[in-house]
Amino acid sequence: MLRAKLHRATITEADLDYEGSLTIDKDLLEAVGIIPFERVKVYNINNGERFDTYAIEGESGSGIIGLNGAAARKGMVGDLIIIVTFGFYSPDELKDYHPNIALLDSDNSIKQMLTK
Asked: Whole-angstrom Cα distance, residue 108 to residue 59?
C-alpha cells in the first residue's frame, strides 16, 4: 500500500558527483513519515522518468529536493517530481488506514496534507 507521498516536489539541485540518493528537506520527511535511508520511488512529471533510490535528510526548512549520483541524470533543476514509499499491512491494519500525503507548492512548502 502507498505509505507516504510528496506530490509535485520541485527539484532544487542535481549533483552527479555525489555518491547517490535523494536529499529531502527534513521537515518534509517528518511531515509524511519518510525516514533517512528508506527506499523511495521517484516519478518525474516533466520527462516521465521513474527510478528507485533512498532518502537522505536535507537541512530543515531549506526546501531542498536534490538528485544525487546517478539519479542526477533522471531530472533537472525545476522539474516536478512525485516521491512515494510503500509498506506492507495486515487486513486489520488497513481498516482505518490512510497514507501520509503532502501536496507541495513551487517552493516545496506543504500547501495541503491529505487525510481520510
From this structure: 13
